[in-house]
Design a protein that fits this description.
Length: 237
C-alpha cells in the first residue's frame, strides 16, 4: 500500500527523513515496527461511517474521462467568474492516494496544479514519509478555479461537495486525504478541528482530514499533528 521502499532513491529517502525531523518525529514513536506493505485487515466497527448521502448527481458524468472533460470545459462551476483561472487535477485514475485540497491559491494557478509552489514540495515530503511518490497520488482541489479574493458561498460549497463525491467515486483511489477546512466542511459536514483524528469513508474510500500544506508552512508546529493524521490514514485497523 505504501509503495516499494526498497526502490527509494537517495533524494527520496532524504525527503522522507527531512519530513520526519520537521514533524518532530526524529525519535522512535512505536515499540513495534510498522509494515506499510501489510495487506489490509477487515475494517472494524470503530471506523466512523461518514458517508453523507449527496443530492442528485444525475447530471454529472459517470465515466472518468468524461468527468475530466467536464471539469476542463464546463461553465458555471463554483468560482467560475471574471478573472478566474481554471486549475485542473493531476494524476491517473486508480492512484494509491487521492489528495483533495482547498481552493487553489495564486501559486497553484501559476504552476497549473491543485498544489503548487512550496505547498507541493511539502506535500511530496508528506507522501515520501508514508512511502509514496508523487506518481502514486492523484491531486485535485475542491473548486477547480482560482478566483483572487473570492470565497465559496453555501450553495457553491454544496455544489463542490457533489462534484467532489463523484470525483472520488471515479478516481477509485485506495485512500483519500482531505487537505484544509474547505474539503472537511464540504465532505464531512464540520470544521477541520472536529473531523481530524478520525477515519471517515467517502464513496467507500478510507478518508482522513488534515491541515493544508499552506497552513503547515505558516505553522510548522502543527506538522506533528499532521504526521499523526498520515499514520491514521495508512493504518489498517
Amino acid at each position: 500500500m505504501g509503495g516499494n521502499i526498497d526502490e527509494l532513491t537517495r533524494d527520496e529517502a532524504a525527503q522522507m527523513l527531512r519530513w520526519w525531523v520537521e514533524a518532530g518525529v526524529d525519535v522512535a514513536v512505536s515499540e513495534e515496527p510498522r509494515d506499510w506493505l501489510k495487506k489490509a485487515a477487515p475494517a472494524r466497527a470503530a471506523v466512523i461511517a461518514a458517508d453523507i448521502s449527496p443530492p442528485s448527481l444525475q447530471e454529472l458524468p459517470s465515466d472518468f474521462n468524461a468527468f475530466r472533460f467536464y471539469l476542463e470545459t464546463a461553465t458555471g462551476l463554483p468560482l467560475d467568474r471574471a478573472g478566474a483561472r481554471r486549475v485542473l487535477p493531476h494524476g491517473l485514475a486508480g492512484a494509491k492516494i487521492m489528495l483533495l485540497s482547498d481552493m487553489p491559491a495564486r501559486e497553484d494557478a501559476v504552476d497549473n496544479q491543485p498544489l503548487g509552489g512550496e505547498a507541493w514540495l511539502l506535500a511530496t515530503k508528506m507522501l515520501a514519509a508514508i512511502g509514496m511518490t508523487p506518481d502514486d497520488a492523484y491531486s485535485a482541489s475542491l473548486a477547480c478555479f482560482h478566483a483572487p479574493g473570492a470565497r465559496l458561498d453555501e450553495a457553491e460549497l454544496a455544489q463542490c461537495a457533489d462534484i467532489a463525491r463523484r470525483h472520488v467515486e471515479l478516481v477509485k483511489s485506495e485512500r483519500l486525504l482531505l487537505l484544509g477546512e474547505g474539503p472537511a466542511r464540504a465532505l464531512l459536514g464540520d470544521k477541520l478541528t472536529t473531523v481530524r483524528g478520525h477515519v471517515h469513508k467517502i464513496a467507500g474510500v478510507r478518508t482522513v482530514a488534515t491541515f493544508h500544506p499552506r497552513w503547515l508552512l505558516q505553522r510548522p508546529g502543527d506538522k506533528a499533528l499532521a504526521w499523526r493524521d498520515l499514520l491514521l490514514l495508512m493504518d489498517e485497523a
